[in-house]
Prior knowledge:
Number of domains: 3
Order of helices and strands: EHHHHHHEHHEHHEEHHHHHHEE
Bound molecules: zinc ion
Shape: elongated
CATH architecture of the largest domain: Orthogonal Bundle
Strand content: 5-15%
Structural class: mainly alpha
Distance between the termini: 30 Å
Number of helices: 16
Amino acid sequence: MSAVIATAQGTETSESTTDNLARPERIIEIVAVILLGLATIGTAWCAFQAAQWSGASTDLARQASTQQVENARVFGLATQTVAYDSAFVAQYAEAAAVGNTRLLSFYRASLMRPEFKPVLDEWEAELNAGQTPTPLVDDSEYLAAQFADYQKGVEVAEQQSSKGQVAGDNASAYVAVTILLAVTLFFIGVTSSFKFRPARALLLAENRDRALHVHFIKSEEMDADLPGWLADRITAAADGEGRYALDAIAEARALRGDGERLRALVGHLTRAGVIAPAPSAPDRIAGRVLARYDGRAAALCRASIEEGARARWRQYREIWAYVEQDSCRRLAILRHFGDHSEPGSGASGCCDVCDPALQVVAPPPDPVEIGNLDEAILAVASCARPAVGRTTCAEILHGSRSKKIQRNSYDGLPAYGSSSHMRRADILARVDELIDEGRLQTSGGPYPVLRVAA
Ligand SMILES: [Zn+2]
């Protein structure tokens, strides 16, 4: 639908609006300004805090991971020390067993770690007292001493990691508050600007919009043979249990690229009870075949197609009745949405029916430019091979570099790019006016092409 319903804010300047405000309204505006200020400062502060906490969280996570690498190194070192001490004790025990005191002194002087001396002394004392000394790997005091640095490192890493988590949680909380405040800002802004300047309803619709509307309804008209055609293709693709899955793009290509038409056809077959579509990706059509496409199904599809066309014409009549009505447009919009308040009918500035001064008048087109444009449009419509539709015609005149233009050498036409200074929508609008005036005709089918009227 190209008729446009425009709502515009009042055009009073803010100064005159402020002058006319009653005292309570002024107070509300002042409160709104204060709230806007607070929310703005709050948003900025929260955004800053979120960034700070997020940075701290990242730093702590990095420190924890560095600490863990160091911990692994310290653990390796402690394990090697315990292995060395165990091997040393084994050698020392062998020398002690044979009573080789020279070798024992050598071991003590040259091979023993100085830190190991108290442990060895205790070990030797227990042995001399006739007791069985505790093996090194079971001596918890000894082991605790060797792994003390490692344990300290693990605690540090855990602390850093949990601090990082808290910082991350804080960052998320500040992000949430920032969003909340931003939303509040939006609503304060919206409410304060709507409160005292009522919206207006204007309608911008021209005759060519009506022509375009008819064009689209006609291009959606469907050949009664098409449902049977698609039913055949679906049945051929179905498995033994009637399940089918087809490539929607390939099927649409068979319909000259009209995906909209493919969806409509699936709808008609479904309503006729021939297929039951299953949910699928947009590029697949899938489901199950329920019944044969027989005479009855064909009649149901025909009825479904006719009902669709009737609905489109009904919408056409409704929307154009709205366009042409001479009662308040705001009232119609309010009632449509179930609002029973009165727009203050007859009040100036309500809508373009209540206040004709609001009606928008398009500036008259430059006759020379229109003359040249008409010639160019008619030239493209009669010379382009393959013949082109209204959109491609406008693209050629506008000087588009699309693949379609290059593939068909439309850029070699004399009129190519002759209206590149215009808006493409305006060129298209003039094409539609020429169709409306009967100087151009369009063929039927999903891809109608232009030809010059005889
Ligand atoms: Zn009105």
